[in-house]
Amino acid sequence: MELVSQWTLYKRTGTYADTLAAVGLAKMIDFLLDGEQEVFVSEKSDSFLITSDPVDLSNLDYQKLQARPQFRYAHLSDEDGDIPPNAILYAEQKRLADEEREYKKKNAKAKSGILSDDETRPRGPEPRFPTFQKINLLQGFGARNKLYREIENADPEAFRTTLIQRLMALGTGTDLQGTTPFAPSTSPLQVFNPIAGKGINQTKALSTSRKSLPNDFLDWFEEWLRYIASDIALMGYSMNKDIKMSVPVPKEITFRTYQAMNKEKGTLAWTSRKSDIFAVLDQVGFLLQHAEKESGVRLRLVLNKSPRDLISSIQTTYFKSLGSGRAVTNISSIGVPDWFTVKTQADYDLWKRITDDHRKVLQLWDEDKSEEADLLGAYRDFLSASDWRAFLQFLGGNGILLMKKREKGKPARTFTYSDLEALFLKSQENSKLPIAEVIRNAGFKSVAEAMRKATVTEQFHKSRGNQSFDIHYGLFQEIKQKAKFREQLIERVARFVNEYNAENARRAERIKEGAGRRRANVTLQELEELFSLFDKYPKQTETIAMLLIAFASAKDDTKQQNDEQSLEEEI
User: Fold this and answer.
1) In this predicted model, what pLDDT tens digit does every residue of 466-489 receive, in sequence order?
2) Which residues pair with 247 in a beta bridge?
3) Per-residue b or e along 333-351, where b marks 16 or more CB atoms closer than 10 Å to that residue's CB
4) How far apart are CA 338 and CA 261, in angstroms?
């Protein structure tokens, strides 16, 4: 008996090629076990561990694996010969994709947004076809198809012996010694193994051609595992002529859950920063969605964990178009959030609301505009590394951008006050930054509310022809400019409060006892409470300033609103 319960795959490339190999091995083990045992994937610092109950390798059915190599053959032309079961019928899928694209074009041209009844929506291609298109553009199907045929046509006993040897070597965490009876040749492909191409640090290598490394550098078995995982985990995005590929990295999760999550449809994005951000937010959303589907205890999947405890990061590779082909120009990794752990149903609901809220706000941003691109970069830094200073900078810029967009009549969304407050209180209670104390301060709340009423709220009334007070257009910019200078910031906040209270007094004098909108003043005590924070935290004036802009530009859902607040999210 050759019992094994753990397989170790060492990280060799530092790219998503390692993750693909680990996920591919997990799927192979799950298939060989007929799905009757839970197979876990765990990430360590230098390796991935695949674990299950003890398995007798000599008793597994390798013949069925030979008949179904666990990745899909891509039928690209009629010269391919017989078509294996479940093959990717590329020409047929492309036709369906073209039909769907034409339908969307017609629909977009129709002013009503609805076509006539005889224009029925085509069924479209299978969900993973856009990624298959990227693999094809990166010339990834030739080697896959070749290996598929070699496995199909291999001698069954040689194939079985080889698989046992390879799985036993991984089970003992050692490299395979000697040769195996089945040893097909395959070509290294950058789409599955980004460091396989030369010139990785520059778009063109200086002293050598851009062709791939020799086949001697390639382990056909690990490449097979990558092909298997590419049908599950690899996602492709178009960036004009460039292509970005990404893979979620499992931290501690069952293979079945990981596989199910990756069947969900992700948010479409055509720019680099937004594709990174939405890939991460989608993973968090999929985790929460599948926590709901778990049988038994509803939150079992995520209880006492943050999303990063289950999926550690998203690994990406950027392929730059060089005209005749595409070359790797960037390999990176973006962390999944660990803002707080899920301990109650309320925590779970908060994660869902926050990720939905953030996705809606960011969807309207245009990365081709430098100001919005910079802010998306700050948000990505926050998302990836839980960099709260970057988030504060992002929120400050978001408030300014919100005012600009609304003044130009462009659609814009903002965050809700209660979820923003809950996010900070959950994540920053014991932080070095005094965020939790600041946002609990009564003076801070009062001044932030006054700023909101003097800016975004009055902008809303102006759009409805009901403006009653001045709109302080440059307030957020000035607060941000003076954020690093304590005295200047205090003077600007005090001047705003003075102007705000004076406007309220003039309004009250004008309408006297009649009907009309009124605003509460900021009291001297409230102002002093806010300024006490500057005395207590003299090196955190920028933090306080950014928080003022963030909460002043947020949608206030903390009070019973009888007029504008429920409607002012979008203008």
Assistant:
1) 899 999 999 999 999 999 999 999
2) 315
3) bbbbbebbbbeeeebbebb
4) 19
Distance CA 443, CA 484 (A): 20
What does the angle CA 18 – CA 23 – CA 25 come to, to the nearest 5 degrees? 95
DSSP 8-state assignment for residue 323:
S
Number of helical (H) and strand (E) elements in the chain, helices listed first: 20, 10
- State the Cα torsion 531-532-536-540 to the nearest 10°: -20
Return the amino acid letter for 62: Y
Which residues are within 8 A (CB) of 371 and not within 5 positions of it... i.e. 6 or more apart?
397, 401
Q: What is the pLDDT of residues 118-136, one digit of tens each?
A: 567 788 899 999 999 999 9
Q: Give the three-state DSSP class for 111.
A: coil
Q: Tens of pLDDT along 324-333? A: 788 899 999 9
Measured between alpha carbons, how far is 254 from 301 in angstroms, rounded to an integer?
A: 10
Length of the chain as a residue count:
571
φ and ψ at residue 384, rounded to 5 degrees? -75, -45
Q: Are 428 and 511 in contact (CB under 8 A)?
A: no
How much helix, strand and coil, in percent to the nearest 5, is found in the chain? 50, 10, 40
* Weakest mean pLDDT among 190-199, 394-403, 437-446: 190-199
Place of tokens 């930054």: 433
Name the pLDDT band for 563 (thresholds 50, 70, 90): very low
Tokens encoding 483: 């954020």
